[in-house]
Structures are given as C-alpha cells and as structure tokens.
Amino acid sequence: MKPNRSLLSLRFANIAGPALLLCIVCLGLVPRAGAAEAAAWSIKVEPVQAEEGQLPPDFSMAIYEELLAQLKKTGQFQQVYRSGDHQADGVPNLLVLRMTLLNFERGNQTERAVTTVKGATKVQVHLKVSSRDGNTLVEKDVQGTVRLFGENLKATYALAKHIAETLRDSSIPAPGAAKAAGQ
Amino acid sequence: MLTVLENTRRPKYGRKTLCAALLLLLMSLFCASLQAQTAGATSASPAAPGVRATHVLGLEGVKRNHHGTLTVQASGLNFAAKNTSGSITIASIQDVFTSQDSHQTGGKVLTVAKMGVPYGGGRFLSLFSHEKVDSLTLEYRDANGALHGAIFSMPLGQADLLKKQLVDLGAHASIPPMQSQADKKDEGGTKQ
C-alpha cells in the first residue's frame, strides 16, 4: 500500500516549520563576535575639532548630539559619555572618539527642491577612536550628505549614522587584546 | 463650415491641464499665505514675553521638533511646549551662538503635494514656499561637567534678542551679541 502523499507532506511541514523557526530564533540570539568585544568598552565623544569659522556652531553641536544619540541607539558600548563628563574619569575600558573637520559645504534646501542636483550639504570628518593609553583602534574619513529632501542639519544625522555604522562594522579588539597590541 | 464648428467645439486645453493649473494656483495662494504669516511673525514686537520657537535637538526631556515658547528668566532659558518643558540655567551656559538659515515651509504635507503636481509645478512652488529662520545654539554643561548642545529655531530677528537677554543676565558668549535694528536706529537718532 502506497503512503498518502498529502499526509507525508503535512507531516514534513509540521516538523520543518518549527525547526526553521527555532533556527531563526537561535541565529538572532547568538551575538556577533565583534559586538560582544565592543560591548566591553565604554566610549566618550568629543565635539568636532575645526578651525575657527569653518564649521557653524549649530552644525558642530548637531553632529555631537546626533552622534551620542546614534551610539546609544546601537547599544554597541556599555556606556556612552559626553565630553567633560567626570563620571568617565574612573572607567577602565574607555575609548575616546575624536573628530576633525575635513570639509564642509553648506547647501540650500530651496536649491535642492528646485534643481534636484544642486544645493547639497556635505560634512566630512576624520574619525579617530583611541583607547585611554593612546592606542588608535579605528581611523577613517566619514561623510554625511543631504542631497534631496530635508533641512541642512539633516547632513549631521547622516554623518552620525555613518560613524555609528563604521564603528559597528569595524573589528574593535577586546580591552585586554588592545592593551597587549599597544605594548 | 462644418469644420469650423468642430474646431470651436474642441476645448483649447485638456481637462488635466486645467486641473493642474487650478491646483498650482491654489498651492501658490497657500504659499503666499504662509509667507504673509512669516512676515507677520518677523515683525512681532521684541517686548513679547516669549518667543515662539521649535526645539531642534539637545534639550534634555524635550522631544525633537516640538513647538513651544522660549522665555529668558533670571534663572535661565525656559522652553515650554504642550505637556513638556525644559530649562537651562544661566550658570551652566558655556556659549551662545546665533545664525540664520532658510528652509522649506509646509512640512511633509506640502512636500508630498509638490511631488504630485505635474509638469514640474512642484519645483516652481518650491521657489515661493521657503522662509528664513534664526537659530539659537547653546553650549552648556550639566552637574557632572558633561557638555550638551541645544538648538532652537525661531522667526527671523528673534535669536539676537534672546542672546542679548541671556548675556545681560550673565551667560558667557564668545561672540558678543549684535545690536538690534531698533538700538541702531536709536543711536542714529541721538547723534542727530
């Protein structure tokens, strides 16, 4: 007697479905190695360093605040400290994020809306993340741009997001390994 | 004769074109009313107790893009919005900056509407649906010494007045506040 095909497929679906679901859940629960290592660090963010008159103060502060918000959102670091925060003084595994302005072009929202191709606002910074002992762990140029929709300050949001992504994708070693590499 | 009659019956412009033109006209009127409102807000008297402002970012406990009223008091700068408020004490202010920017009015609704206007009419409308705004940036430190930055945007000409009030109360500003137009006029009057 031949087994009923529809019954077999139903049984297969009953087993395979939950198994697949279990696999997905397990994959979601397993933390990425890089994220686990970075979670041992805390980070302190310094405002953008720029020559006088190169970067408007509202942009400078917006980059700083947006970056703090993005870093907190990613959850990559144990704590995110602001510049000058006394609470960060006693933290052992502390990274310091510094930014130096490379380029700033202030666009115009109306120009963007009318022409589509002109009036973009661009901010480019040189990013440097180093440990307390001066060992540089991440160094990269990052840019934020607003090309079509949104106000000029939206470029700071794009920049902060790119910086957070750069840190997430970079393989920051565990605190012990970083110290050994520095020595 | 028959052909002449047919020509006269045919509409010169299509129905779609007429609709587009009507939509364009309505949106132009809407933009013009926005411009008029902006002009009215700009000419508001500086003696007003508070300034209508938008919290762009940075003030603790207040959500972004909340509209409210900024007031300068002896204790510091207060921002009061619907169901929420925040303040920065004078002593904690490290620096005060003002700047100007222009942005598109009408928000997301008008942006989407402009995208729907045919024949590039939306771009044409963008030429008239923008306004200049002042922005006030404050650098301040909390009790732990942590640096914060708060940005507010407000109608043109208001940021300098607020900065002047803050500096008069003892807030530190690396760039001294500019004299308002009214002050300049007064000075001119006394010289004559």
Features:
heterodimer, A: 183 residues, alpha/beta, Rossmann fold, 2 domains, 5-stranded mixed β-sheet, 6 helices, 5 strands, 44% helix, 25% strand, flat, B: 192 residues, alpha+beta, PH-domain like, 7-stranded antiparallel β-sheet, 7 strands
Structural summary, described in words:
The complex is a heterodimer of chains A (about 180) and B (about 190). Chain A is of the alpha/beta class and about 180 residues long. Chain A folds into 2 domains: about 1-30; about 35-170, ABC-type transport auxiliary lipoprotein component (Rossmann fold, 3-Layer(aba) Sandwich). Chain A contains 6 helices and 5 strands, in the order H-H-E-H-E-E-H-E-E-H-H. Chain A has helices at about 5-30, 35-40, 55-75, 110-115, 155-170, 175-180, and strands at about 40-50, 80, 95-105, 120-130, 135-145. A 5-stranded mixed beta sheet of chain A has the order 2-1-3-4-5. In chain A, helix 3 (about 55-75) links the parallel strand 1 (about 40-50) and strand 2. The longest helix of chain A has 25 residues, at about 5-30. Chain A is flat, with a radius of gyration of 23 Å. The termini of chain A are far apart. Chain B has one domain: PH-domain like (Roll). Chain B has helices at about 1-10, 15-40, 105-115, 120-125, 160-170, 180-190; strands at about 50-55, 65-70, 75-80, 85-90, 95-105, 130-140, 145-155. The termini of chain B are far apart. Residues about 1-5, about 35-50 and about 180-190 of chain B have low confidence and may be disordered. Chain B contains 6 helices and 7 strands, in the order H-H-E-E-E-E-E-H-H-E-E-H-H. Chain B is of the alpha+beta class and about 190 residues long. Helices cover about 40% and strands about 30% of the residues of chain B. In chain B, a hairpin with a 5-residue loop joins strand 6 (about 130-140) and strand 7.
